Amino acid sequence: MAEKSLFAQFKERSQGRRGPRCTMGLAIEAMNEKDREDTLAALAEPGILGTAISRVLKAHGFDVGADTVNRHRRRVCSCES
Ligand SMILES: [Zn+2]
Questions:
Q1: Which of 20, 22, 25, 53 is paired with 13 by a 20 to 30 Å CA distance?
Q2: Number of separate domains in the chain
């Protein structure tokens, strides 16, 4: 694959559709609607720790580390948003 220009990469990142998602993003995508709502609400709630979210997700079969939860939360992960 030919290397893309930086400009193309910046643009692609901005559009954000094709980047690989982090495991947190993948877990959110994979879960049912109710769980997704709960998880998004938990991510938006500063009082709920990333470690707590990680533990609950792991208990439900989503192998998401606390660091990944926190990165996703701060939007510095590979997901689009
Ligand atoms: Zn993410």
A1: 53
A2: 1
Q: How far is the CA of 14 from the centre of ligand 1 (A)?
A: 15
Determine the structural domain holding residue 63 and report its residue range.
19-73
- Nearest in space to 69 (alpha carbons), one of 61, 81, 77, 59: 77
Write down the pLDDT at residue 1.
Answer: 59
* C-alpha 27 to ligand 1 mean position (Å): 9
CA of 2 to the centre of ligand 1 (A): 27
Between the CA of 22 and the centroid of ligand 1 the distance, in Å, is 4
- Domain annotation covers residue 25: yes
Q: How far is ligand 1, taken at its centre, from the CA of residue 18, in Å? A: 13
Q: Are 31 and 62 in contact (CB under 8 A)?
A: yes
Percent of the chain with pLDDT over 70: 89
The pLDDT of residue 15 is 66
Q: Flag whether 67 is in a domain.
A: yes
24 located within any domain: yes
What is the rounded average pLDDT of the residues 52-70?
97
pLDDT of residue 25: 93
